[in-house]
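User: Need the bound-state model for phenylalanine:
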Amino acid sequence: MNLIERIAALEKALEDARATTVDEVEKFRVAMLGRNGAVTELFEAFRTVSSEEKRALGQRMNLLKQAAQARLDALRDIVTTDGPGSVRTVIDLSAPARLDPLGTQHPISIVMDRIVGVFTRIGYTVSQGPEVEDDHHNFGALNFPPDHPARDMQDTFFVEGKDRALRTHTSSVQVRVMENSKPPIRTVSPGRVYRNEAISARAHCMFHQVEGLYVDKGVSFADLKGTLDHFTKSLFGPDVTIRMRPSYFPFTEPSAEVDMSCSICGGAGCNICKHSGWVEIMGCGMVDPAVLSNCGIDPEVYSGFAFGMGVERIAQLIYRVPDLRMYWENDVRFLDLFTTAPMRG
Ligand code: PHE
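Assistant: Bound-state model below.
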């Protein structure tokens, strides 16, 4: 082969060169640019040719050398990046790790779990039921008279005509538990409920409740009060106290609203408790005997208490989120704030 043929052959070899590992790149370097490499040897041969040939081929020789170096660099790039068929060989151990972002528990789930946890630790079961309910379980069995305003279109989202609606409370689940089991019954029913409210910073048409039910022989109002006192202290610390105000629910008699001494100002008065020192946290009462018999439980033998609270309301006392709507906007900058729950209990 004369010089010009050797140049052409090498130009082609450079173009065809492939490598998938660092070793192959190194072999290429030695074969081309090493001390006995083809390009190096060609330059040796070039030194001995006539000055005419030197003039004619000098530039092409220089281009060949540059092409060999460029090919080497390109092959190095291929094997040190994650191209197809390549092997990642350069690992920067000092580079910060790119961890997959971990999801966080939703603040309402955190609070709901804590509420439920207080009751399961004292022997309550957890019961769940459908969000689309019939009139019987949401209203009828719970003693709502046919003309009760809560059945009105204003409050209730009806589905498929009048007999199906999105449940307005999880008391419906307790009806199902009473219908399907025998006392003693101790259960809490966490879940979503729906009411036809205008959505604002302070109200939503969907929210969460945890309702509780205890039915056995000889259950008294004192048991109710003791249980709720235990609950509030477990969640908000030993310093809070509760008080009860007479109220009305169709399914309990007597009924009460429960206030807790304001956990934020300690009862001294602040804008959360509207300077009263107390915040309302739930409704409760003794299960109306008519409700027990509606559900197949003999009210002459058994009595019970029930209570129900809004999870968002409890969450507000803990997190003080200024606008309820933020809970449901799924903005990760907001949700990421709740990786740990600043709660006791
Ligand atoms: N079900 C009632 C509500 O949704 C709360 C409640 C439950 C009140 C049990 C008394 C007893 O408002």
